[in-house]
Write a structure and sequence with these properties.
globular, Purple Acid Phosphatase, chain A, domain 2, alpha/beta, seven-stranded mixed β-sheet, about 375 residues
């Protein structure tokens, strides 16, 4: 633990204890390890040894400290391929092959089923959707976010048996982004040559839909209200049996589509909203280095998202989509990264859902 961290924790621990209506005299602090004189040598082990500071207090203190950490802009953030070339020298990426479980999840685990990028093609899915406690869709559930597409998706997800159904928007949900007002700004084929990090076919967001149809699609201002069969997250979270799930649709600027922000400071500002106690993070964009390699050989992931995930948030699982050819699972040794894109590079819904079990917090079981 750094000196700065050691000095920070005592103050935070006192705040937490105060929140739990626990008070101590000045003699307590003078007689304990929590003093100004030796704060710099304070370690997590010493804090744990203090009977009054239980595991919950320490964990919360560390998470609050992580949330206060400042994530720096990488100097190569505008070129994710070059950035990853540098970052990968000190990164571990392990590919994981996961099989769909054949038995029910134990009572102390939450089974999560993940999909993404179905692009209004759910009627053509030929595989069964595995059973689970939670169903997550990481965005691009439509071609352009038209009302009809949203209604059809809502009907489809409503027929799934999962108790908790959680979705976020992607760059294709044009009508979900109130800042997106000009359908004629959406680029089509050929623009991949001007962009550092895309899938070629991902430059055709509407699969042939006219821009007049796009203009009509974004007129519905209350489009999110039609998602009655699921929980829609947009820079927000939901807690399921003690597991905190946070969802955000923002991604690095991508030829003027929905939920686009410039790489660097703007992206970091959006990622800075992610709570540090998130267990499952759902984004539409991948982080650089995981599930973001395009068929062109370039990287499309967000550099600041990777920095935020690895250095501050540290979720157990990070679920995303966006780059169809990046489908699969990887790990850096601590975090599991899941690109759950259902559609492949040819916009065929061939990739099956990815399933994982996450252990519930101590003392919590599914009812």
């Amino acid at each position: 633990m750094s000196t700065d961290a050691a000095r920070f924790l005592p103050s935070i621990c006192r705040q937490i204890l105060s929140a739990y209506s626990v008070t101590f005299s000045s003699e307590f602090y003078q007689s304990s390890d929590i003093t100004n004189s030796n704060a710099s040598s304070l370690t997590a082990d010493k804090i744990c040894n203090l009977a009054v500071l239980d595991r919950l207090c320490l964990t919360t203190a560390c998470r609050i400290y992580r949330f206060s950490m400042k994530i720096s802009i990488h100097p190569l953030t505008a070129d994710p391929t070059a950035a990853w070339h540098e970052l990968s020298q000190h990164q571990k990426v392990v590919k994981i092959t996961a099989k769909v479980p054949t038995t029910e999840a134990p009572s102390d685990k939450l089974r999560v089923v993940c999909m993404s990028d179905t692009h209004s093609l759910t009627p053509y899915i030929k595989f069964d959707i595995p059973m689970g406690d939670v169903f997550i869709h990481a965005g691009d559930f439509t071609k352009c976010g038209s009302l009809q597409e949203v209604i059809e998706f809502n009907n489809w997800i409503g027929n799934l048996p999962h108790k908790h159904k959680i979705i976020i928007a992607g760059n294709h949900e044009l009508s979900f982004d109130p800042t997106f007002t000009n359908p004629f700004s959406v680029h089509t084929s050929g623009d991949h040559q001007k962009h550092t990090g895309t899938s070629i076919l991902d430059n055709i967001p509407t699969l042939g839909m006219s821009k007049d149809a796009l203009a009509e699609a974004i007129k519905t201002t209350n489009i999110k209200d039609y998602l009655t069969n699921c929980t829609y997250l947009e820079d927000s979270e939901i807690t399921v049996h003690g597991i905190k799930i946070y969802g955000t649709p923002w991604q690095p600027e991508f030829v003027k589509w929905a939920f686009n922000v410039p790489r660097g400071e703007a992206c970091l500002s959006k990622m800075g909203k992610i709570p540090s106690d998130t267990d499952i993070l759902v984004t539409h964009t991948p982080p650089v280095g995981h599930g973001d390699l395009c068929c062109t050989g370039v990287r499309a992931g967000c550099v600041e998202l990777l920095s935020t995930v690895q250095n501050r948030v540290k979720p157990k699982y990070h679920v995303f989509g966006h780059i169809h050819e990046g489908y699969g699972i990887s790990s850096d040794g601590k975090i599991i990264y899941i690109n759950a894109s259902t559609c492949d590079l040819n916009y065929l819904p061939n990739n099956p859902p990815i399933v994982f079990d996450i252990t519930l917090p101590s003392g919590i079981q599914k009812s």
